[in-house]
Design brief:
Layout (H helix, E strand, L loop, with lengths): L12 H22 L11 E5 L9 H16 L2 E4 L5 H10 L7 E6 L13 E5 L2 H11 L2 E4 L4 H15 L8 E4 L2 H13 L16 E3 L2 H24 L3
Parallel strand pairs: 1-2, 1-5, 2-3, 3-4, 5-6, 6-7
Helix pairs in contact: 2-3, 2-7
Length: 240
């Protein structure tokens, strides 16, 4: 039996804060337990595309992102983005070009200065915090493509990179597209392992796959998708 709990006066700010902190931690325990439940067979392969909200339709980055997302949609991949403008909209627009084969999904966060969900999203999820939003990206995605982006994109990239490093995510491609990313990875290699006391293993810094074009990213996703299909077929054929 749990020990009897005594009432806490709202006038006692220290104890009130302690009760709130314990309650929040308890809620996270519940969430963590629920997310341990994994489907034995995922019905669809889902690719999350991270990228800047500032690219305009007609720009090279926008049109390339849209084209590559359309290729993945033809393959039968669902496309997940942050649901906003820029490269998120481009990826959702590409997915929307093949609605019979792909879902175009937006995972939004409540921000006072950002636009509403873009018009090419067919399924929307709303979050109040970046933490729960990032958690949903992790739970739902089979691969990640990172297009050029700013601080938010870097945050998302580092989160996925770290989860792959500690094996909380496995067999999940993290593909960085464009000229801005190789220098980031090289900085990490130089700063974290080229010293007397390395702060990371060399293998950790090989996790992101840097490519120069969207076509290279699509090629890597095709390989990952083929392996996923193979694993799905194996799951179905295994005896219950």
């Amino acid at each position: 039996m749990k020990p009897e709990q005594t009432a806490v006066s709202l006038a006692n700010e220290d104890q009130v804060r302690e009760v709130l902190a314990e309650s929040v931690l308890g809620l996270w325990d519940v969430v963590n337990n629920i997310t341990r439940l994994k489907p034995s067979r995922r019905e669809r392969f889902r690719v999350t595309v991270f990228g800047s909200a500032r690219f305009k339709p007609g720009s090279f980055g926008y049109e390339e992102t849209k084209r590559c997302a359309a290729e993945l949609a033809k393959l039968g991949c669902d496309i997940i983005t942050g649901g906003g403008p820029g490269l998120m909209k481009a990826a959702n627009e590409g997915a929307a070009s093949a609605p019979e084969r792909s879902k175009s999904i937006g995972v939004r966060v409540d921000l006072p200065f950002e636009q509403e969900v873009n018009s090419f999203v067919s399924q929307t999820f709303e979050h109040r915090t970046f933490f729960t939003r990032l958690h949903q990206f992790v739970l739902q995605s089979d691969a990640f493509i990172v297009a050029p982006g700013g601080i938010g994109t870097v945050l998302e990239t580092m989160m996925i990179w770290q989860l792959l490093q500690v094996r909380h995510l496995q067999n999940t491609p993290l593909i960085l597209v464009g000229e801005m990313w190789p220098s980031l990875v090289e900085w990490a290699k130089k700063s974290m392992i080229s010293i007397d006391s390395p702060m990371a293993d060399a293998a950790d810094l090989d996790i992101p796959q840097c490519v120069g074009s969207g076509d290279e990213a699509v090629t890597l996703i095709r390989k990952a998708h083929a392996q996923w299909v193979k694993n799905q077929d194996k799951t179905v054929s295994e005896p219950k």
